[in-house]
Amino acid sequence: CAAAALVAALGKANHDVSCVAEIAAGFTDTAALEPAREEHRLFLTDDKGCGELVFRFRLSVPGLVLVRIEATRMHLRWRRLETVISQIGEDLFGRYVVVTENRCRSRPLI
Prior knowledge:
Blueprint: H1 4-12, H2 20-23, H3 29-39, E1 42-45, H4 49-55, E2 63-67, H5 74-88, E3 95-99, E4 104-108
Helix pairs in contact: 1-5
């Protein structure tokens, strides 16, 4: 699960969120993607390994957002994610999006 504070901020902004760590702590990365598939949710993570699972091993997920900003910079993480959500919105589905301090990269999922 992405940082609990980030999940809480998304919930406070009225986004429908669920945190894998709260549902099933100790899941493998592969198993952690399963609830996103089953519930047709975006998967928010700070683990680059999830991108490898999706592209290299072809595991499906409705959308994958990788936040590449240090967890200690919570305010910046939230601000950048909020900007991406407002700019891309529902189009996050079907995409792999990498959010960094200075930019956002996006490509279609396979």
